[in-house]
Amino acid sequence: MSTKRMIWAALALCASLTSAAMAQETAQQQDLDARVQRFLDEHRRQWRDANVPEADGRVLYDLVLQNGYTRALEIGTSTGHSAIWIAWALSKTGGKLITIEIDEGRYRRALENFEEAGLSDFIDARLADAHELVPELQGPFDFVFVDADKDWYANYFRAVLPKLEVGGCFTAHNVNQRMRGIREFLEVLEATPSLETEIVRASRSGISVSYKRSDG
Ligand SMILES: C[S@@+](CC[C@H](N)C(=O)[O-])C[C@H]1O[C@@H](n2cnc3c(N)ncnc32)[C@H](O)[C@@H]1O
Fold first, then answer.
1. Whose CA is nearest to atom 27 of ligand 1?
2. How far is the CA of 198 from the centre of ligand 1 (A)?
3. What is the mean pLDDT of each run of 10 residues along the chain (216 residues)?
4. Is the shortest distance between the CB of 175 and ligand 1 below 6 Å?
5. pTM for the whole structure
6. Does ligand 1 come within 6 angstroms of the Cβ of 93?
7. What domain count does the chain have?
8. pLDDT attached to residue 18
9. Residue 200: which domain range?
10. Is residue 174 in some structural domain?
11. Is there a domain that residue 192 lies in?
12. Is residue 150 part of a domain?
């Protein structure tokens, strides 16, 4: 075979191997999508541990997917409803979620849910007090969701902001509700010039979505 033909044959082989690998990847993602969807359908009426409503889960999923975020942090896992929405989006962007829960029973239930949904590989679940762990985490992060003790939201924000990438987004649950700590947290957001904040009201809880626009 001439050298030219050998090069063409090698290129054709590479192209067919690449398209076979891509087809396999698509099939794997489709299998995962079906598994997560089935899990969410089966558990739709079974979230009883202060979990986010489905509408808010979808907001988180869309934010991660549309912005292509890959390094996510969640504070307040509970039994894992919001983490499942975030991790599902991360399964498509090639990312991973660190999620923190202080209650051992909820943490263990969350691990079971992640396994059942097929998302364990995309989640690093920690059983810890976020007051201590969050300041120790190295980052950087490009997506943060806070849904733990509301009167600590402002402290979580201060600890995470330096580790949030420009273009990244800090989100917080229940900002539409009268809970201790929420007003102070919203004031801190407003006083931070590097942020652009909107409140998404997909449910009555409300989610603040703050994009970091600069390092200042
Ligand atoms: C509103 S629930 C989270 C719901 C969860 N995001 C979901 O949608 O499934 C708040 C959780 O934060 C946890 N939490 C409260 N204080 C915490 C702390 N200091 N460190 C870690 N987790 C904490 C609680 O145990 C509770 O499970």
1. 78
2. 23
3. 84 84 85 97 93 97 98 98 98 98 98 98 98 97 98 98 98 93 96 96 96 91
4. no
5. 0.92
6. no
7. 1
8. 83
9. 54-212
10. yes
11. yes
12. yes
